[in-house]
Write a structure and sequence with these properties.
This protein is mostly beta strands. It has 13 helices and 106 strands. 9% of the residues lie in helices and 29% in strands.
């Protein structure tokens, strides 16, 4: 019935709304029909409008107008007449608008509001309720939406404007965006702690176990569960009666003043009571002193000064106005159940004090803010950071008695200076000095430096300069300052405008004053650059030419009859210094009969027989030309005085005459001159071509007549020439009026000129006449014509004076203040201040030298050090008398006595300077340490109390570890006579301690430092450190810190161990070693003897680089580097020289005729060709073998009366191009005509011109560029690369250039070009910086570092930069002293069991080594005396606090747990935009079962934190346990999604519906903890049977607080399988989950393999064998496999 009633009520409640909806729908429908039928027919029509058009207008702004279309439409959508719509309702078709122009862009902009909170997206059709249901899945979170406001505003005042204005320039920003609402996060708590002990030792009590909150609930997550669990316990029955009542002490109330007595309130005086009493007492004291007699003046002055000092010490300042009041507390008697009962129920307890003296709380009071100070920035420049201005306020009342603390007393804000006369800020810029001298030695390698002589180096080098900082606008600021001074001192009318210095132009060098380099910002100009020193070009001359004819010195003046023969040579390569650096070019030999012009034979005519005979003797007429002494042809008239050449006799052989060949040319003269021992000889020869007839013919001469010898170069070996000395220095020419300026002002020099010219000077040199092999002779011996000049004009370079900057300003005295406020200047330490100046131009050419002093230093002068080191300190004054709670208030307290007891006393505290003068209290609040306490508890002893003096100091120890030390105190007054005070157990009068035994041991700590070279600045030649120079390597030292411990393993000063704090050990920084190569080998011979070839030289590796030395150039596989340059060999340098043909050797000797076939031979030698002709014989391979003349020839010796022909002439040249159609020919002429009847053989031969056989084409061939060639003294820089031009025949053979030159081929190539060899610049480093401050002021891990930077990176093959750019060394180990709190004491309640009490802790001095892992050890507080009392930076020292001691039976809150780890809101490991939090909680502890209902609520707190972690939560299960685990391995409750709980997926089939069962992750029904599974034969769970549990306490177990050990229950019933009795399978194929077991699959696979094997064997056994096939040799022949070797070594 109940079920049905619930169902009926449900149907009724759901049907009532449906009925009402039906009635409402019918009513609405009737009303709608009525309105449509009774209404006007025009309701079927309505007005439609189009969009507004563009805003039009003549001017920009609000004066525009825009229009739109308006029409009448039917409800069905078609357009109709406008009259069908209601005319009054017609919308407007025009409106005014704002016409937007482009310049409005700067006036209007979109204003973007903040995004609102993320709101869930509610699907349409759902009535309400946002958010996901907790039963639903929430993989990432819920989708939401955020909105914001966007409006168009006027930038000037933020007033709203039409959105169309902003849309004209930029589309409207989006108004909404998607967002994510994280899934609900439940509260996450830790696992329970172990159970506490029973709250009672007898009777019925409680045990508690608690847990803490790890993560708070967020996003509508479930609230935190109970943090406490209780269970009852009864250890044993109680014997006797339990204590049921206890005294409970309440907390102290607020501090209040005692009530004023009625007579005091009625007094007319308003003076406070303490002040009035003090004044009365002082008046009485003065009167009593005056009665004793008048003091002398000195005594009175001392008394007066003491009174003044005491007046300062009095507590009469308005800053303090301390009032002592009292406070009370309540003491009640409570029952164990928490109810209060009368105090009489607690008679066995003595009541504690119920009143206590206290300070009346007063808040801090401050004055109004003062005026803002002037802005610290006093100049105008937007690029300079803003200045600050400050204001302050004074303290008028300090906080007392827990009153509100003082607010900030100083305020500051950024500012810019204001006003019309604000000067511009000083700007600073880098300046540089002139570049120094170009130095090549800086680029030399180690190998080059060891060669010793480094003079004459040239080529690429390095030059340096200094960089300094100057004030860029110093002149402008000085000008403005001067103008301001004039403006302040003169009337406005008298001022005249002046021109600022920036508008004036001057060429005079003015050096600005240097300033601190830290003022300049931006990149520093480079301090080094590559430079080039031009290498001197050596003079190259040609070989000597032939001696000329004997000629006059001067053909225009032939009065002097002395003649000379000259020979000359030319300059092939002009030297750097001009022709003067070349050797002499002319040599002269005296001669007789000089002439300036003479005839020169050019050709001899044919031999003409005499007397018109056909043969016989005759003459040859010469052909000559007129030449001068230089061999140049001139007009014939000049040779009128010379004798013309005579005719030469000759012979035309007759048919029977002997025929001789023509004379060969005269050979080269054997000597260049003649002496007594040697004469010059020339020789020529001729040969017999045909013998004479036996009778009647001219007889052939003998052999001696076939050779002629004549003298040559008959002039004596007396050779003269002019010899010149080097040019002297350029001296000022006094004849020139231009003076050489020595001023520092000079004209600007155009770029590219190194030295400006100022005057012309003269250079001289010595010129002497020298006789070869003799020496100097008188000048008249040498011809005057070729005499060199001994004087020449020169250019004097300008003198350059040294230019230095003015001295910089003196550096400020860096005063450091010690703890006592004494500056380093006044304390006797030597503090220096310095200034410097910079040389910006070095002197040159005799200019003024630089000053010797560029750096000055002086001691700092002590000024008012008090202002430099302002020190403020607190001064404490005497404690006032102890003030008790008024007797009228505490007289009712049990045991109270008047005039004694606990009270409070106060004192004044003032602020003083170092000299003791009074300072404002705000200075001490700002600069001094924390203010000393102004009140303390005190005790006025009662009549029966024992009074003792304070403990004395311990007596000194004679030695460590020897004897004892004592301290004492004594009884005071009447206490000496009281027996209880004489009890030494309660009131000991002495204490004894063993003398401390201090033993110290030192030991090293930490790593060794870097190897550090000894300190000391090394000024290198170039002013910078070069990687690997003398101070960058070598022996250094490395350091390891020493630490000193005492006998208690506490860190102490290293001086206790007689150590300076370091272990020092020598170390070596290896010096870099550059790559070392051998010297260049000699150049090889040119690879070709004719034409262009190459020549090679090489170096080989001697030593590889190491330790960062210069790398080697690219080497080949045998560690060699080559240099290849083209070369050219003159094809006429070596020629074949053939001697005359020998006599004929006739094979068929006819003694009568002496003719017939014969052989002639001759010697052919390869000789060096010179100007004078072939001279020395050389190896035959140097001459072209193709051009070698034949050494033998076979021919027919003409018989008498036969025709004798001359030798064949050379072949005529073929016409080019060689087409194969042309011919060439050669001819011979008849030397002897035959007799009549006989004919001469052919005297002409012809052959076709064939390409590359006898006809050739010629072309120029250009070689590749050579490597860049430097001077022998250059390392790098500008060099010369060359290439050669070669004439190549069409068959590829190189021939003499004249073949191409004769053809006039175009030569457009450049043979030489400049090139650059990159300079090997070593890495240049800056100096090491100064050591930094220690990274830690104390501890073991402090270190100091210094660094250096790369000034110039390495270039080319320069030494690379080192890896180590920073060095460190340990700091001396100093103990880390710090104030730390001790542990809180137990909560103390005076003389009672429970209630409100106090707990205390000590502030102690600890020492540690600075590591966070070590907490530190307790040491004497004296070691922390220099430290301000603060714990972890908190100066608010709290040494006591209120606490609550629960009464027996109370239910109370525990202490706060520790803060949990910081946790962020994350989705899939990504943090969302929510602040991270950490949480702590307080759990409830109950002691009585009946008081559980009175327990307070548990509490938890959260706070934001930085850098939260992302934690994941997942279910973890075993076959017996399921728990939730956080990603850091902690077992928690909450956090895991309920949908993923094992057993809730519904994956088990059939479902797990048995009690105590659940579905595991494997889809198997399992039993909960403490139950075992009973499974049916089909593997299904039948029931969960409980099993015995053995509890093993395992605190801290990961999976739970109790581990369970399962055992077989022997009492469990045996389950029988249904069905008929039969054999039982011991191997069950199915598991308990109904699935096949693994071994079933293995057996099936084995059976399958066995079947396959059996079938295969049967098939092979039954198969018929195949017939053997015939072997086919052509198909079965094996082909070799060819491997192509590609040169790979791995093959």
């Amino acid at each position: 019935m109940g079920l049905w009633d619930r169902g009926a009520r449900t149907v009724w409640t759901e049907s009532v709304p449906s009925l009402w909806r039906l009635v409402l729908l019918v009513c609405c429908g009737i009303h709608t029909v009525h309105s449509q039928t009774s209404g006007d027919s025009k309701s079927m029509y309505f007005w439609e409008t189009g969009p507004w058009g563009r805003c039009m207008g003549s001017e920009c702004g609000p004066g525009g107008s825009q229009s739109r279309a308006v029409w009448c439409a039917h409800v069905e959508g078609w357009t109709t007449l406008a009259t069908n719509c209601l005319q009054p309702a017609r919308p407007a078709n025009q409106q005014s608008c704002f016409r937007v122009c482009d310049w409005h862009r700067e006036m209007y902009d979109w204003r973007l509001g903040d995004w609102n909170h993320c709101v869930p997206v509610v699907p349409r059709g759902l009535g309400g309720g946002g958010g996901l249901m907790r039963s639903g899945s929430c993989p990432q979170g819920e989708e939401g939406i955020q909105t914001r406001e966007v409006s168009c505003v006027l930038k000037a005042d933020g007033s709203p404007a039409d959105d169309a204005i902003c849309e004209y320039f930029e589309p409207r920003p989006r108004l909404e965006q998607a967002c994510l609402i994280p899934c609900p996060r439940d509260c996450v708590v830790s696992r329970f702690s172990p159970w506490t002990s029973c709250s009672k030792t007898c009777g019925l009590g409680l045990q508690n176990r608690i847990r803490s909150v790890l993560a708070p609930p967020v996003f509508r997550g479930q609230a935190c569960p109970n943090l406490t669990e209780f269970r009852t316990c009864a250890p044993r029955p109680c014997e006797g009666r339990e204590t049921l009542f206890n005294l409970r002490v309440g907390g102290w109330g607020d501090c209040g003043l005692p009530p004023v007595p009625p007579e005091a309130s009625e007094a007319p005086e308003a003076t406070p009571l303490p002040v009035a009493l003090r004044a009365t007492r002082q008046a009485r004291r003065r009167k009593s002193k005056e009665r004793k007699g008048t003091k002398d003046p000195v005594t009175r002055q001392l008394i007066q000064s003491k009174r003044n000092r005491n007046r300062l010490n009095r507590q009469e300042s308005n800053l303090w106005s301390i009032e002592v009041g009292y406070r009370a507390r309540r003491v009640v008697c409570v029952h164990r159940n928490g109810s209060m009962v009368p105090l009489s129920q607690c008679p066995h307890w003595s009541l504690p004090d119920m009143h206590q003296s206290c300070l009346m709380p007063k808040d801090c009071e401050v004055s109004e803010w003062g005026q803002w100070s002037p802005c610290s920035k006093t100049c105008a420049d937007p690029s300079v950071p803003k200045g600050t201005r400050t204001r302050s306020r004074q303290v008028q009342q300090l906080p007392v008695g827990g009153g509100k603390e003082c607010p900030l007393l100083e305020d500051s804000q950024p500012c810019e200076p204001s006003g019309d006369s604000i000067p511009p800020c000083a700007s600073y810029t880098w300046r540089t000095t002139e570049w120094g001298e170009c130095r090549v030695d800086a680029l030399l390698s180690q190998q080059d430096r060891r060669r010793g002589n480094q003079t004459g180096l040239c080529g690429g080098g390095l030059q340096t300069r200094e960089v300094y900082c100057v004030q860029a606008n110093a002149e402008l600021l000085s000008y403005l300052s001067n103008n301001q001074d004039k403006t302040d001192g003169q009337p406005q009318s008298s001022l005249k405008p002046s021109v600022p210095p920036l508008l004036s132009i001057t060429f005079e060098i003015t050096a600005s004053q240097p300033v601190d380099s830290q003022l300049c910002v931006g990149s520093v100009p480079s301090t080094s650059q590559l430079c080039h020193i031009s290498c001197p070009i050596e003079c190259e001359v040609s070989p000597w030419g032939a001696w000329g004819p004997c000629t006059f010195e001067n053909c225009s003046d032939q009065s002097v009859k002395k003649g000379f023969k000259f020979r000359r040579r030319k300059i092939l390569n002009y030297p750097t210094g001009g022709e003067g650096d070349c050797p002499h070019l002319v040599e002269a030999v005296p001669c007789e009969e000089p002439s300036c012009f003479d005839w020169q034979l050019t050709k001899l005519e044919e031999c003409v027989p005499d007397e018109e005979m056909d043969c016989g003797p005759g003459t040859q007429a010469p052909q000559a030309r007129c030449v001068n002494s230089d061999g140049k042809e001139v007009i014939k008239e000049l040779c009128a005085d010379a004798v013309y050449l005579p005719s030469v006799p000759c012979v035309v052989p007759c048919p029977k005459d002997c025929v001789l060949s023509p004379w060969t040319p005269w050979s080269t003269c054997s000597q260049t001159c003649s002496s007594k021992t040697a004469e010059g000889k020339q020789m020529r020869t001729r040969a017999i071509l045909a013998y004479n007839a036996g009778e009647g013919g001219t007889i052939c001469p003998n052999t001696s007549a076939l050779q002629e010898v004549r003298n040559c170069n008959e002039h004596a070996c007396i050779v003269y020439h002019w010899q010149t000395g080097p040019w002297g220095p350029c001296m000022e020419d006094t004849s020139v009026t231009t003076l050489n300026s020595t001023s520092t002002s000079f004209k600007s020099v155009p770029s590219g000129q190194d030295k400006p010219t100022c005057a012309m000077g003269m250079q001289t040199r010595k010129v002497i006449c020298v006789k070869v092999n003799v020496g100097q002779v008188p000048p008249k011996k040498c011809p005057d014509g070729p005499r060199p000049a001994s004087v020449r004009p020169c250019v004097l370079p300008c003198k350059k004076d040294c230019i230095v900057t003015p001295f910089s300003e003196w550096t400020a005295c860096q005063t450091s203040c010690d703890a006592a406020g004494v500056s380093s200047v006044t304390s006797g330490q030597k503090i220096k201040q310095s200034r410097f100046r910079v040389v910006i131009q070095r002197p040159a050419n005799g200019g003024l030298d630089c000053p010797d002093v560029l750096y000055e230093e002086k001691d700092c002068v002590s000024t008012s050090s008090s202002s430099a080191c302002p020190v403020y300190r607190w001064k404490t004054h005497k404690w006032r008398r102890c003030q008790l709670v008024p007797w009228s208030i505490r007289q009712e307290s049990k045991g109270a006595q008047e005039g004694c007891g606990a009270g409070l006393q106060t004192r004044a505290v003032s602020c003083r300077q170092l000299d003791g003068s009074v300072a404002d209290i705000g200075q001490c609040l700002k600069y001094a340490s924390s203010m000393p306490p102004i009140n303390q508890s005190c005790q006025l002893p009662c009549r029966d109390d024992c009074q003792l003096t304070n403990w004395s100091k311990f007596s000194p120890c004679t030695a460590d570890c020897v004897g004892v030390r004592t301290r004492r105190r004594a009884l005071v007054g009447k206490s000496k006579k009281r027996d209880k005070c004489k009890n030494s157990q309660m009131y000991p009068l002495s204490e004894t301690q063993y003398c401390p035994c201090n033993k110290y041991n030192a030991q090293p700590v930490g790593n060794w430092s870097d190897c550090i070279l000894p300190e000391g600045r090394l000024e290198t030649a170039l002013g910078m450190r070069v990687q690997g120079d003398g101070r960058e390597c070598g022996q250094g030292y490395r350091y390891q810190a020493m630490v000193c411990y005492d006998q208690d393993n506490r860190l102490v000063e290293t001086s206790r161990c007689n150590s300076h704090g370091y272990i020092e050990e020598a170390c070596i920084i290896p010096c870099p070693s550059d790559c070392k190569l051998s010297e260049w080998s000699n150049w090889s011979r040119c690879s070709k003897s004719c034409g262009s070839g190459v020549k090679v030289r090489s170096k080989w590796l001697r030593e590889k680089p190491y330790n960062g030395g210069r790398p080697c150039p690219k080497l080949d596989h045998i560690n060699q580097v080559y240099e290849v340059v083209p070369c050219v060999s003159d094809c006429s340098q070596y020629v074949w020289v053939a001697e005359p043909w020998s006599m004929w050797k006739v094979s068929n000797v006819d003694l009568k005729e002496n003719c017939g076939e014969g052989v002639q031979t001759r010697k052919v030698r390869c000789m060096l060709n010179t100007v004078d002709g072939p001279t020395d014989a050389v190896e035959d391979y140097l001459c072209d073998p193709e051009e070698m003349p034949a050494g033998t020839r076979e021919s027919r010796l003409p018989c008498p009366e036969d025709c004798v022909l001359s030798d064949w002439s050379p072949w005529t040249p073929c016409e080019l191009p060689c087409s194969g159609r042309g011919d060439r020919q050669r001819t011979a002429y008849a030397l002897r005509l035959p007799k009549e009847g006989r004919e001469c053989p052919k005297s002409m031969e012809t052959e076709p011109c064939l390409l590359n056989r006898n006809c050739y084409h010629y072309s120029y061939n250009i070689t590749d560029w050579s490597t860049c060639q430097l001077s022998a003294n250059a390392v790098c820089g500008v060099g010369l690369k060359t290439r050669m031009l070669d004439c190549v025949r069409s068959d590829g053979k190189s021939v003499d250039l004249r073949f191409c030159e004769e053809l006039g081929l175009d030569r457009r190539w450049q043979m030489n070009a400049s090139c650059t060899v990159e300079c090997p610049v070593n890495c240049q480093l800056s100096e090491w910086s100064t050591w930094t401050e220690c990274s830690q002021t104390c501890g073991l891990e402090g270190r100091m570092t210094r660094s250096r930077s790369v000034v110039q990176a390495s270039r080319g093959d320069g030494r690379p930069c080192p890896v180590q750019m920073e060095q460190w060394k340990p700091c001396p180990v100093r103990p880390c002293y710090s104030w730390n709190y001790g542990q809180w004491s137990e909560c103390r309640v005076e003389e009672v069991v429970c209630g409100e009490g106090r707990r205390f802790r000590n502030l102690s001095c600890f020492v540690s080594d600075g590591s966070r892992e070590v907490l530190g050890s307790l040491v004497d507080e004296e070691l922390c005396s220099a430290l301000e009392p603060a714990v972890d930076g908190d100066k608010n020292i709290v040494l006591e606090e209120a606490c609550t001691l629960p009464c027996p039976g109370d239910c109370y809150l525990m202490e706060w747990s520790d803060w949990s780890p910081c946790q962020s809101v994350c989705v899939k490991g990504q943090r969302l935009d929510f602040s991270a939090v950490q949480v702590r909680s307080r759990a409830v502890v109950a002691q009585e079962p009946e008081n559980i209902a009175q327990c307070p609520e548990q509490e938890w707190q959260s706070r934001p934190c930085p850098d939260g972690e992302c934690f994941d939560y997942k279910w973890v299960s075993t076959p017996r346990l399921v728990w939730c685990e956080r990603s850091d391995g902690i077992n928690v409750t909450g956090g895991c999604p309920p949908t993923s709980l094992p057993g809730t997926e519904g994956s088990c089939d059939p479902p797990c519906d048995k009690p105590r069962s659940f579905c595991s992750e494997e889809g198997v029904c399992m039993c909960e903890e403490g139950y075992t599974e009973v499974v049916s034969p089909e593997g299904l769970l039948e029931q969960c049977a409980q099993i015995p549990v053995l509890e093993i306490p395992t605190a801290g177990d990961r999976n739970g607080d109790v581990k369970t050990s399962r055992a077989v229950d022997p009492t469990a019933a045996t389950t029988q399988q249904p069905g008929p009795p039969s054999r039982t399978w011991y191997l069950q194929p199915f598991g308990p989950d109904g699935k096949l077991k693994t071994w079933v699959y293995g057996v099936a696979a084995g059976v399958f393999v066995l079947l396959v094997f059996i079938v295969s064997m049967i098939y092979l056994a039954c198969k018929k064998p195949k017939k053997p096939q015939r072997r086919q040799n052509n198909n079965n022949r094996l082909k070799p496999l060819t491997l192509a070797y590609d040169g790979d070594a791995d093959m």
